[in-house]
Write a structure and sequence with these properties.
420 residues, alpha/beta, two-stranded antiparallel sheet, binds NADP nicotinamide-adenine-dinucleotide phosphate, SDR_fam
């Protein structure tokens, strides 16, 4: 990274911290959860849902009656998170409190994706209810599925299991991420770790799932009778048969401004010395933002004109958030010798008081998930919640197209599995 870019980023970082501090105050003043309607009875996948912003997003979705699949790389951490989420949901009054929509008695519709273990269905949502049970709210479910974005075959396997489950998908939150690993690491697929974990894995996942959704939607449209009977079970339900619009969210970051894709052929590998771990993170986040915008352009083009209820892709900047990722980044800034002194400052003062809470950040994510497609499709939703600024580089459709084509090539994605 050039020293001028470095200086520019530091300046922006300070500005971001000031803005973020304002946001922290606003979050504190408006501590109540936002409305974010229309989530009840829907199904979401949250990558990296076991920690940080992903966990808080899963919690917020469940609280609004949306079933969540935590797509995680570690079964133990995923199971522990799901158990905590289920306990929180039950503690807040079970399914009645989750805002589940009314449904007829019978199956809860909470299938597990490809045989994933249910990790604590919320109270009152057991799958074995009597046929003659009176109307009651459908309980939101939380489940765990293995997904390692740093292994492309794991992404493909996840998508295959999702397809086999027959479940429909309403919301995909491409959230998982890593930031500034100390060493340049190359994945088994041959790509720089941050590029693959933050960007390429999500690119593959989103394309596979969006194309599955589009096929399901087309099938649905061809079978009006089946659709009618599906509607009795809930047109927005978590079972198979529902095919409402799909929303895809990509967690980007203000650091995308430091991204530089002028040598696109090197970006996936970071072969050119000197390797700069922060520059690689910035690039992964710029790629993510470009992909979100490009995917939305393609989805908007494919949508029948009309009511605005279309599939949409949205980029999100959650703000600077008090998570392991942010804490790890700030803690490695001072020289190593000083860290025994500075670490406690970051842990006890800076991160809890200067950064947003994951719960507040989840409100921004939910805004991006529920605002009308015409309002947020292809936009970059930031703190407040509002559409926020982004770099000119993120707005270049030609770079976006080149990146899209390159990514499809790197993932060896068949034309039929690529959103186009
Ligand atoms: N925190 C901030 O200030 C901030 C600011 C801007 C943008 N963001 C973005 O927000 C997103 C969430 O970050 P966070 O702050 O919540 O971080 P976090 O607390 O560190 O959580 C990251 C999550 O991603 C998962 N993950 C990492 N690599 C993975 C892989 N290869 N496959 C599957 N899951 C993987 C982690 O799983 P393990 O628990 O197994 O490690 C964890 O669940 C990231 O995309 C980040 O870039 C964060």
């Amino acid at each position: 990274m050039k020293w001028t870019t470095d200086l520019y980023l530091k300046g922006l970082g300070v500005l971001e911290l000031v803005e973020n501090a304002q946001q922290v105050v606003e979050d504190w003043l408006h501590r109540k959860r936002g409305q974010h309607g229309g989530l009840a009875g829907k199904t979401a996948i949250v990558t990296g849902g076991n920690a940080g912003v992903g966990y808080a997003t899963a919690e917020a979705l469940l609280a609004r009656g949306c079933s969540v699949v935590l797509a995680v790389r570690d079964r133990g951490r995923g199971d522990a998170a799901a158990a905590r989420l289920a306990a929180t949901a039950a503690g807040s009054g079970g399914s009645q409190q989750l805002g589940g929509r009314q449904r007829k008695g019978g199956s809860s519709g909470g299938q597990q994706a490809g045989g994933a273990a249910a990790q604590g269905s919320t109270a009152g949502g057991g799958p074995q209810q009597a046929e003659a049970a009176p109307e009651q709210p459908e309980a939101a479910q939380v489940a765990v599925e293995i997904l390692d974005l740093a292994i492309l075959s794991s992404v493909r396997a996840f998508a295959e299991r999702w397809k086999a489950s027959g479940r429909s998908l309403d919301l995909l939150v491409c959230n998982a991420g890593i930031m500034v690993p100390p060493e340049r690491t190359i994945t088994a697929d041959g790509f720089e770790l941050q590029f693959q974990s933050n960007y390429l894995g999500h690119f593959l996942l989103a394309n596979l799932l969006v194309r599955q959704h589009q096929r399901q939607h087309a099938q649905h449209a061809q079978q009006p009778a089946q659709r009618a009977s599906g509607a009795a079970g809930g047109s927005q339900g978590s079972g198979s048969g529902s095919s409402g619009p799909l929303r895809v969210l990509f967690l980007s970051s203000m650091t995308h401004i430091g991204g530089d894709l002028s040598d696109l052929t090197d970006v996936p590998y970071c072969r050119r010395p000197p390797w700069n771990t922060f520059a690689a993170y910035c690039n992964s986040k710029l790629c993510t933002l470009l992909a979100a915008k490009h995917m939305d352009r393609l989805l908007a083009r494919a949508a029948p004109s009309g009511d605005g209820k279309r599939d949409a892709a949205v980029a999100v900047h959650p703000g600077l958030v008090n998570t392991a990722l942010a804490a790890g980044y700030f803690k490695q800034m001072p020289p190593k010798l000083l860290r025994p002194l500075t670490d406690p400052f970051f842990t006890h003062v800076f991160c809890p008081y200067m950064l947003r809470s994951p719960e507040a950040a989840a409100e921004t994510v939910l805004y991006a998930a529920t605002a009308p497609a015409d309002e947020v499709g292809g936009r970059y939703c930031g703190t407040a919640p509002r559409v926020t600024r982004h770099s000119a580089a993120a707005d270049d459709p030609q770079v976006a197209q080149r990146l899209w084509d390159l990514s499809a090539h790197l993932c060896q994605l068949d034309a039929d599995d690529l959103v186009s």
